[in-house]
């Protein structure tokens, strides 16, 4: 088992190194593109370190932009899942809730989160509220859909078992519906997280004065590709870290080999 | 008063009539085996009894009252695998007891008892995905016995078990029935099983299902499958089921 784990770690590490090597060869050895638009990994690494302290040309250090983005993304995301997951569960379990909410949800669902940005700017300005609302819209949709689907997929035999023992409908939901839907709910949480970052960058590019999306946009205007890549890589790293935290939580909560 | 009273029970799925005006009674402490051709509606009957299906006509009474799953202590062992994948063997067994709010002391005692009964003591902390088909069914059986039901409904529970275990659990069921006098309704398509265990046998017809014959099994317990009288009884039931 340990050997297998080591093997997988080695494969994953090797794939990252291969990617970096190919990048290095294209940028520094064969110089396929000009270094101003396609910087090498070393140049990006240097820019990364520099951006930790330097505020030009976007008015903030990497840390400042990261914190600004994290605040917005976590606020919107947490609101989205706190409302989305229970709503999806209730829609999946109670037919009346489904009948009331689903038509409205089906109408709102196809609107891309970015489509909400102009209206949010009009209503809430370019502050944290507007961006958090856009992220909320992105996060809430997958959270609802997955919780709803997970509940709908509850094995009727399990529901029957609970009912024949005399469990109430609510007790059956708590003891059967939700535990059985947990893998789907967690899948939704991960999709929501990805969608939140996408919406954040889009929102910050259109209307913001700080944040990683704003930093990328500002550096595009002055042609600093290395800083753009620093912003992108930071989003990737933070996204991966948050996904890792979610997966760790999933492993703790989803029992019975269903989290493989 | 009869434990279970079924009056003019009728149930259809669309245009297909499955149960047609069935009436019979199960007395307190009866061990009734229901046999009939495959697909004749035996499971539909049990599902109707525990209100998993709405019936079209007739009534089902327990102790003279309409079925109330909170009031009447019923346990139902289904044909399908019904263990919950997110619970360990022990937690699966405790599921019904927790719903019925058993005290912690009783819950632990009964868990140990039924785990031993089905021979799964060493697998208490295993998850269903780690168990074989027969072990999964044993978990369902243990879960049902754990709640000490007044009425035990069993829908071909031993169909997927190996022979040795099936014989052991058949004897175990007879022992429990003799000790507790729990009313048991046991559905099976295995005629030998029905003759071996039951105190009463009810034979159903093909769809639309009616009661063809309902009679007391006079053979004394314990029974021997090789005895002449046992074979005679088995042949009698076989002849009743034959529709060919």
Overview of the structural elements:
- The complex is a heterodimer of chains A (260) and B (244).
- Chain A is mainly alpha-helical and 260 residues long.
- In chain A, 78% of the residues lie in helices and 0% in strands.
- In chain A, helix 9 runs antiparallel to helix 10 (225-253).
- Chain A is flat, with a radius of gyration of 22 Å.
- The two termini of chain A are 15 Å apart.
- Chain B has helices at residues 42-49, 89-99, 104-117, 133-146, 163-180, 191-197, 228-241; strands at residues 2-13, 16-27, 31-35, 57-62, 65-66, 74-77, 151-155, 183-187, 200-204, 211-216.
- By secondary structure, chain B is an alpha/beta fold.
- In chain B, helix 5 links the parallel strand 7 (151-155) and strand 8.
- In chain B, strands 6-7-8-3-9-10 form a six-stranded mixed beta sheet, sandwiched between helices. A four-stranded antiparallel beta sheet of chain B has the order 2-1-4-5, covered by helices on one side.
- Chain B folds into two domains: 2-73 and 149-241, Rossmann fold, CATH 3.40.50; 84-148, no CATH class.
- Chains A and B meet through helix 7 and helix 8 of A and strand 6 and helix 2 of B.
Distance between the termini of chain A: 15 Å
The number of domains of chain B is 2
Classified by CATH, the class of the largest domain in chain B is: Alpha Beta
Through-space gap between termini of chain B: 38 Å
Spatially, the strands of the biggest sheet of chain B line up as 6-7-8-3-9-10
Instruction: Give start-end ranges of low-pLDDT stretches of chain B.
Output: none
Task: Count up the domains of chain A.
Answer: 2
Count of discrete alpha- or pi-helical segments spanning 4 or more residues of chain B: 7
Question: What is the level-2 CATH architecture name of the largest domain in chain B?
Answer: 3-Layer(aba) Sandwich
What would CATH call the class of the largest domain in chain A? Mainly Alpha
**Rounded average pLDDT of chain B:** 89
The total count of helices of chain A amounts to 10
CATH architecture of the largest domain in chain A: Orthogonal Bundle
Arithmetic mean pLDDT of chain A: 91
Envelope shape of chain B:
globular
Q: Report the sheet-strand fraction of chain A.
A: under 5%
